[in-house]
């Protein structure tokens, strides 16, 4: 049935693209790795730096009130915030270098830095 619509070249091309996609995803995950520490900023100011190796719950204060942050098992999340919709708390855990959780109404940014050798800059942010 498949042979009726597709040639052997079509099937080889699809399999090649699938394999290239799987290898690319694996390589990106391997290169990005996990982060080493969490940076918390409020209103653009560096307020707090936490290690991902230590489980801790802490609170930072933004313009609308408190934002509760939890580091657990090498990952971080916002547990609760005083913002109206709480989208930031619904984002769940982040654990890879470069990932970010932002609470826009309360001006809180939680980001993961460190990880592999070198800093987590790219060509645009240097």
Which structural traits does this protein have?
26% helix; 3 helices; alpha+beta; 126 residues; elongated; 4-stranded antiparallel β-sheet; 2 domains; 7 strands; mini-chromosome maintenance (MCM) complex, domain 2
Any overview of this molecule?
- The chain is elongated, with a radius of gyration of 20 Å.
- It has helices spanning 2-5, 8-32, 87-90; strands at 37-42, 45-51, 56-62, 65-72, 75-81, 100-103, 108-113.
- It is an alpha+beta fold and 126 residues long.
- The longest helix is centred in the first third of the chain and has 25 residues, at 8-32.
- Strand 1 and strand 2 form a beta hairpin.
- The chain folds into two domains: 2-32; 37-113, N-utilization substance G protein NusG, insert domain (mini-chromosome maintenance (MCM) complex, domain 2, Sandwich), CATH 2.60.320.10.
- The model has no long low-confidence stretch (mean pLDDT 86).
- It has a four-stranded antiparallel β-sheet. A three-stranded antiparallel β-sheet has the order 3-4-5.
């Amino acid at each position: 049935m498949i042979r009726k619509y597709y040639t052997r070249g079509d099937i080889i091309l699809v399999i090649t693209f699938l394999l290239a996609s799987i290898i690319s995803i694996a390589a990106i995950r391997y290169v990005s790795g996990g982060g080493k520490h969490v940076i918390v900023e409020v209103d653009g100011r560096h307020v707090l730096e936490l290690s991902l190796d230590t489980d801790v719950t802490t609170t930072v204060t933004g313009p609308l009130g408190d934002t509760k942050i939890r580091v657990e098992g090498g990952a971080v999340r916002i547990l609760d915030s005083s913002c109206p919709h709480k989208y930031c708390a619904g984002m769940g855990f982040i654990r890879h270098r470069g990932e970010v959780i932002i609470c826009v109404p309360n001006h809180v940014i939680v980001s993961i830095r460190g990880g592999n050798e070198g800093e987590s800059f790219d060509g645009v942010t240097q």
